[in-house]
Fold these 2 entries.
Entry 1:
Amino acid sequence: MPELPEVETIKRGLIPSLKGNIIKNVILRRKNLRIPFPENLQQALEGQKIEGIKRRSKYLIFELDSDDCMIMHLGMSGKVLVKEKKPEEFEKHDHIIIEFSDGKTLVFNDARRFGLVTLCKKSELEKHKLFSALGPEPLSNNFNEEVLYNALRNKSSPIKNAIMDAHVVVGVGNIYACESLFRSGLSPLKKSSSISKKKIGELTANIINVLNEAIESGGSTLKDYVHANGEMGYFQHSFQVYGREGEDCGTCLKAIKRVKQLGRSTFYCPNCQK
DNA sequence: CGCGCTCCCTGGCCGC
DNA sequence: TGCGGCCAGGGAGCGC
């Protein structure tokens, strides 16, 4: 499901309901998602206050008042919804239900189960296997033309693969990779190391801009992505190439093409993107 | 080491 | 209406 803008939107939506709220009860309806839940997940959560919610890459990090935090990843199809009270009946694929002392309930639903939920000591987050090898956050000062150019200058892979690689920069998934390359006039097939520093500078700016614009629009709703309150995002109406195979390019009116890279669909305008 | 292929899993949609 | 095939926002692991 979600790329960086969607996870950021979810995080922002969760904070008003959950920050300062105390976990009363945790219901696990299965033992695992992509990886097994920690044995002590329930004990570690129950009775804890949510001190804050952060995001790193596409991971949500719930800080507890103990030394722990809960790490959550939504995979492709994961949703987290805040409900005013505990639902009478669980929906299919509701895997984790967290009840809070004020009566609200957080429900984690993930049909494809590519998501994960685990625990980590706050002091060990940066060292955690999930985080230790990650590249810079694209919306932080750690990401700029210099950083991206140095990450790509020796790469033989196509530029689209490279910017979707979390070692290079985190949070850029299939949609925003396609859109930022279109804005930059760069072919997704072009070899990373062959791109000029000037072009990499443009791409850097376009990655940042497209992510920021998507966050302002509340993310992109394709099939079933919704905010923590159930509302939809609307950045999908701003897509220039993603999902538009065969349609006219908005710039040159030639047809947008779809190809496969790393088993995933890439959309681009062969005329505008060289 | 860098890179790409395959797989994890479910569900929706399309064509026959 | 049913079934097979293809598609989907992510990421780890393995083999070359």
Note: Chain A has a mean pLDDT of 93.
Entry 2:
Amino acid sequence: MESEAVAPRASAGPDAVYLFCDGACRGNPGPMGIGVLLRYGRAEKLIAEPIGRGTSNVAELSAIERGLREIRRRDLPVVIVSDSSYAIGVLSGRLRAHANVDLVRRVAELIAGFKDIRFRRVRGHAGMPENEEVDRLAVRAAAEGFRCDDLRSLPIPGVPEP
Amino acid sequence: MESEAVAPRASAGPDAVYLFCDGACRGNPGPMGIGVLLRYGRAEKLIAEPIGRGTSNVAELSAIERGLREIRRRDLPVVIVSDSSYAIGVLSGRLRAHANVDLVRRVAELIAGFKDIRFRRVRGHAGMPENEEVDRLAVRAAAEGFRCDDLRSLPIPGVPEP
RNA sequence: AGACACCAUGUUGC
DNA sequence: GCAACATGGTGTCT
């Protein structure tokens, strides 16, 4: 795995799209679900979807794929935030995929269509709010078939919500 | 590798130094840590150290090296207790080292300076208390940069601790 | 093909 | 906190 140094790392800039994603299954293999949070400026989009039966690693890869397909502006820098060392490893070429070859290649080609994609590994259940949120979405999608595709606006500090 | 029969085996005698050691990484390769427990009579010494980035096998070899360097009395019999079939193999000459050649030679020369060194292979995570302890030390050293170098006295059965 | 080790993730149970 | 299972990877040797 290997965590990147997080603190000293420059952010991808104000125009970057942040893609937080997580996959879950009930049992492994088992019914899978994905959770995605896309953030661009003050706008957020939440996606939850059950995606059939498969393995935990397939769920993690599928969450990344689903999130990337949501991004139209392929010229914008994208930061993929995932807790799956496996998914980041096989997509960044650090690990070689022996299983899930088709899925890995499909997502890799998707990635190749973007101008600037970076990966950011985070520890699962380490308190990062966005990671916790997509984890809950993925778990609900896998367990209850929960599905959503909602826009949302970030609160502005000091400005009361309507 | 086959496990040696543990129960019927003669111990190395009352004056032997027991060197329990383990290496760990966070990811492989990744940040490494070592854990060492030296026992001589009723005295124990615990060592934990992060040792930079490398592979699991390098960590295992380094734990042995670090433990051996702690032993002054090279005339005493030493029992190296490790769960690494690789480390014991390359150091005992049963396996041939193609990688990590410098490190292997360095530790082998260290070993050659002792009068009586034996290896004892134990299964990892099989419940042996000393192995579990050095495993935890190594993992903490790799994960959190934990470091220690402490003396400790074994409890005497029937005698309450202070 | 096998062995040992080191991990990551996903679950299940208490 | 403690068990256990599965899916996937590397480091190393035979």
Note: The longest strand of chain A covers residues 43-54.
